[in-house]
Structures are given as C-alpha cells and as structure tokens.
Amino acid sequence: MRKHSLLTQTSRFSHKRIFFFIFALSIISGTIAYRLFALAISRHAEYASAAQRQQMAPAAILATRGSIFAFDQSDQSPKLIATNKTTDVLTERYYPKGVFAAQVLGFVGYREHERVGQYGVESFYDETLRGLETDQRSIGEDIVLTIDPNIQSYSEVTLDALLKKWSSPRGSIIVQDPATGALLAIASSPSFDPNKYGSFNYADFLNPVVQEQFEPGSSFKPVTMSAAIDSDSLTPNTTYEDTGAVTIGSYTIKNFNEKANGLQTMRQVLEHSLNTGTIFAERRMGNDNFLNYLVAFGFGQKTGVDLPGEVAGSINNLYQGRAINFATASFGQGIAVTPLQLINAYSAIANGGKLMKPYIVREILHADGSSTVTKSSFIGAPISEKTSAQIRGMLVDVVDNGFDKARVKGYDVAGKTGTAQIPDGRGGYLENKQFIHNFVGFAPAYAPRFVILIKMDKPQGITFASDSLSPVFGDLAAYLIRYFNIPPTRQ
C-alpha cells in the first residue's frame, strides 16, 4: 500500500511538470508568433527598406551622391571638382582636379561598411550630398562652393613656390571677401590627393586654417590699436615716449630690434611695429576694455564656418587678470588664434567694422531644380565705421612706409606682418630662430574687394615676415586686382 501511494504521488508530480512545461512553451510560442507577425506585417515596410539599402550595391549608393562645384567668378559659372564615376571593379568618388582644395573638400571613405563623407565639405554636408533616403534610393543634392577655381589655383601655386623657396614644412593662404565673409580660396600645404587618400597620413587631412592655432605676433597689433581708438582711449596721432623697453613686475619687454625710438605716434607704432607702443595702447584702454574687444572680434571662440573640426583658439590667460598677460597679448604673444579668426578680424577692419560669419558653401542645388543660396550673416560690430577708416589709413601707411614689396602700383594697399615665436609646450618658446611668419592685408584699402592671409611655418634662412611674405602678398594682391578688373585708386 505504501509503495502504491508513493508511485501515485510520483506520477502526479510528473504530470504537473509536464503541464507546466507545456504551458511555458505555449507562452513562448505565442510571443514568438506575435514578434513574427509584427516583423512581417506591422514593420514590414521599415525592415524591407533597411534590407534593400543594405543589399544595394555600393556603386549604386555612391552614384546618387551629389556633386561639388567651385564658382568661377570670371564667367559666373560652376566648375566641377567632386563627382562620382563607376569603374569595372567598384564604387568611386572622383575628384577631377586631384589635390585641388583637398582639405576643403575632404573625401568619401568608409565608416564600418557605410560610405560617408570624411573631413571638409564632404563631411560637413554629408547628409545633403547623400540626400533623402527612400524605398528605392537616396538622391543627393549638389553643392556650389564660394571657392573660385582660378583664385584657388593661383594661391596653391604661390604657396608651393613660397614654401620651397624658404624650405618651410607647411603654410596656408586664405582669400576672403570682406563684405560677405565668403571664402574665395583656402590653400594649405602639405596636402593630399582625395582620389588616393589611403596613401596619405592622417595629419594631411586636417585643415590648418580652422583646425590649428598659433600665436600671431605683430599682425595682431592692428586689432589692439582698433580697440584703443574705438574706446576713445587715444587717436592715431596720440604720442608716447618709446624708451625701447617696458618693465612689468619681474618681466622686461623690448621692441623686436631692442631699440628706443623716442617720441612716437600711434601711426608710427604700427609702421615700426613697436611692442612698447601696443602695450601703451592696451594700458590706456584698460584690461577689461581690451578683453571685451577681443571677444567682440571673435577671438577665443569658433567662427561658425561650415567646415568640420574648427577650434576656438585661446585667450584664456587673459581671464587670469595678470598684467603681463595683457601686455604680451597686445602684440600677439601668449594668445592663440586660428588663421580664419585672424583674417575674419581683418575683414571687419576692412569693411567698416562689421564682423561677418565666414562661409564656404555658396549655393545648394536641390533635386527638384530649385536652389538655396547662402545669405551673408552679420555677427556684430566690434568697432565703428569711423575707427575702421582710421585703422585702414594707418595700415596703408604701414605698407607705404615699411613694406615696399607689398605695394601694388596705382592702388592703396593695407597690411601688417607678424613674426611670431613658437611655443615649446613647456611655457617657453622654441630657440634657434624658429618662427611663424604671417601677413594679413587687403586692397583697395578704402573700398576693399579682398583680404589675404599668408602664413608660413619655420622658414629657413630668413628672420622677418616683412622680408619673406611682403613680395608674395604684393604679387597675389596684384593678381586679384587684375582678376576683378579693379580701377586704380591713386596716381
């Protein structure tokens, strides 16, 4: 009896386990069935579209990517500089002019298994160029750049010759329209061929115009002088006694040639590039005023240009409140700017005091035949039109009385050089006469059509930018004057 009872209990226990297993299996089966229904019916279109995109041949995907054009101002027409072509083997993005404006353009590469724009315009406008995805395909939109192919090519050839002449490892040239902020040329070296991007180093893809910063040196002095004049702290004819040196605490700051010049006007401060003079100007306006003007000019912040990876530069040491930091910043040392920030500030000086947002895309051409034209964007007015006119006159004096090789016969040309030390990363500067040379200027000075920035790193066998870059600026300015057919402004 006892044995029979135990068997019966065991049998009942087994039945319960089987029942529980069947019940659980039913629940799981029901859940799976529901998911299959959801996939097959409710989200069929979504998953089918995704599968179709994944299976689509890379060449077909790339074939719909929009093209990129440069805008030729000589005949008011777009010129093709990036498109697609199909080969016997695969998918290719094709750049018909090779290294032309490579760091502006970027290239189309791979992100895992997906073709995407990388660096430059290809990256910043990747969604626009790829277009809107449909169940069938993506239709990209074309882009027309503000870059002028003629100005770009001339700038690239000029830069290559300059770097070769002075055995410089790298440099840049920017040409900007000061009235609108449009960028007409961005040339940098070393560069790369986007058709063969796999053969180049990562560093070659970076655009130093927006992704690298440097201490500008004396080319920053017109910014300081603009602030001092605009704040009514002094005038172009205000004088001071130049003893050749200024002592601040335990620091002694001297002029570049370590000479004293006696009584000097603010005009002569820029003409002779006197460090002591810009320190005088900064002290007259006060630290807070100076800092506020630098912020208004856009320093220490991104310009907002439509290119990827822009850095903000740095004026952080001015927020420490140390007198020595303000003194050195007045002549462009101890602060960092990008080439684009610096030329944009000069454009504000050139155009009557208006800071414009720089931009690289002129127009987007939509698939339906319509287009969206980029409108120039006004950021603010760091200085008045009156101050702008005064500084322009002072910068004309700089070229006329100092940088004779930057002159263009028959035209008022404004500009200023900078010969800047290179930080060593340990709180000091590189020795052995390693400098960054730069020149920023514009013409015609009183109705400017263009602003030019030239930057060259570590040139060999020459000390000052006034000697290395003045003739290059003069040549490029003369080319642009001819190109735009600008009538003479002086006898």
Which helices and strands, and how do they pair?
Elements: H1 2-42, H2 44-55, H3 58-63, E1 68-72, E2 77-86, E3 91-94, H4 102-105, E4 107-111, E5 114-118, H5 120-124, H6 126-130, E6 132-133, E7 138-139, E8 142-145, H7 149-165, E9 170-176, E10 183-189, H8 202-205, H9 208-211, H10 221-230, E11 239-242, E12 245-248, E13 251-254, E14 262-265, H11 266-271, H12 275-285, H13 287-296, H14 323-329, H15 339-350, E15 355-356, E16 361-365, E17 371-373, E18 378-380, H16 385-401, E19 414-421, E20 435-443, E21 450-457, H17 465-468, H18 470-483
Parallel strand pairs: 1-8
Antiparallel strand pairs: 1-2, 2-3, 4-5, 6-7, 8-16, 9-10, 9-21, 11-14, 12-13, 15-18, 16-17, 19-20, 20-21
Helix pairs in contact: 10-12, 10-13, 10-16
